[in-house]
Amino acid sequence: MSILLENHIVELLLERNDKAMSLLYEHYGDTLLGVAFKVVRNEELAQDVLQESFMKIWKNSDRYDPNKAKLFTWLFRIVRNTSIDKLRSVNTKSDKEIQIDVSDVYKLGTEGVNPELMDVQDNLDKLDDKYQIVLDALFFQGMTQQEASDELNIPLGTIKSRLKIGLRELRKIYGSVLLLTSMLYIF
């Protein structure tokens, strides 16, 4: 795809012009459907994911920043994350159907847990920027460590170190049990 066409699509998205969606579908639809299918391994689910993804793209078009990522990278992440969410949703639904009689599996002891303290993302601002960036990429943008390394242009070893130190710093804020519980809510 030419840079001119990509820039035109971005402009249309930012203007909330319907033409942007038809251009996106025309130029990226097949590839993004392939991304969804690779994750969910089901044609019908992949089509649902693509439709949901395009709705998210439209709703969040003002969040796209060409200085942070190419348009395809941004689209790819939305489709990939939506695919993962869909797969988890389907798996959770089937798990619940299987475990109808089991109500106490995986009960977490939450006595004394203050719900206001459970939002890890709100407490990231208490960490140094270098740790915030890595934790945000890994936990809230759904990147793997290698993807974060590539996207942030930071060596993989540094990503791993910053993850470890960032989690240690959050543990100081929450305490080890609270951090584990908080991280479970993320996934």
From TrEMBL:
GO molecular function: DNA binding; sigma factor activity
Keywords from the named record: DNA-binding, Sigma factor, Transcription, Transcription regulation
Record CDD domains: Sigma70_r4
UniProt GO BP: DNA-templated transcription initiation
Span of domain RNA polymerase sigma-70 region: 24-89, 124-172
Pfam families: Sigma70_r2, Sigma70_r4
Signal peptide: none
Claim: DNA-binding is one of the keywords in the record: yes
PANTHER family, sorted: RNA POLYMERASE ECF-TYPE SIGMA FACTO, RNA POLYMERASE SIGMA FACTOR SIGZ
Similarity section: Belongs to the sigma-70 factor family. ECF subfamily.
The protein, known as: RNA polymerase sigma factor
